[in-house]
Amino acid sequence: MDENIRKVSEELDSAAPGLTHQEAIEAFRIRFLGRKGTVSALFEQLGTVPKEQRGQIGKQLNDLKNKAQGLIDAATAGQQNSVINTRTDLTLPGYPVQFGKLHPLTVVMNEMIEIFRFLGFSVASGPELEHDWYNFEALNFEHDHPARDMQDTYFIDRDLLLRTHTSPVQIRVMESQKPPIRSIMPGRVYRNEAVSARSYCLFHQLEGLLVDKNVSFVDLKTILLAFAREFFGPQTKIKLRPSFFPFTEPSAEVDVSCHLCHGKGCRVCKHTGWLEILGCGMVDPNVLKACNVDPEEYSGYAFGMGIDRIAMMRYGIDDIRLLWDNNQRFLQQF
Ligand code: PHE
Fold this sequence. Notes:
By secondary structure, the protein is α+β, with helices and mostly antiparallel strands. The chain contains eleven helices and nine strands. The mean pLDDT is 92. Phenylalanine (PHE) is lined by residues 165, 167, 207, 245, 248, 279-281, 302-304.
């Protein structure tokens, strides 16, 4: 029996190199492991082996069977690999690599920051969760001002709220720095407004603040015109309309001539030829006082523009919600 097992084991070894295709593997299986195969025949002889040797011979037979099965498995796996290999067409072009893109808001904000940096402004930031003092009180909002109403402001408690504009950063900058100050403050702001194509509950602003000796409204107008020409194009005109903000006096709203129709009137400017882009004014003396800046010695100007609206104008986006959808088909266009 020993001798037979050894012989079959040798046969397995010599047949193994021939297992190069499916038919050979199947013939091998039948020859050794099939019902009438050599290994099976040896198992049948096990009954004739003397009892005391049976355990040991049985173990040898099992090893032999496992060896045959192992060779079959290895050859089958090799076959499958080679099938895959022969089907790989190496001349095919590779899969395209998908690159991420900057969000249109990021593109616009970076460009604005770049322009103001060039004009000598540094960049500052403040928290989005803000105290009533910074968001309202220090900015000269009277106690019954409608902007404090629950409708507009997300209050966290009596003192804490989600900032409704970037103007509180003006206060933080004046608290921590002595004039001359020349800073811009981009960031997210929150307002409890009904969500629609034109308004969203959060958006972005870019605030500007300059405080120094002898600052006048002309300086403000000059810097805004320089910005508008750099951002919208050299032919751009600006128009200032009187307005009101608690923290600036006098105050104005600024329109730029429509960069698409150059003032003729189109869908983007709603046929007026003008686009409203920001609010501005001379820093109210009360605000300077709240920050321990002497209004007799210093004056300043401030402005705040809505980044989302400007991005929408630039790219002709007609629904602000698209900026928040994370829709690849939309975002890949920029
Ligand atoms: N904070 C004002 C707003 O949110 C904009 C503004 C900023 C106006 C600075 C004047 C000066 O509408």
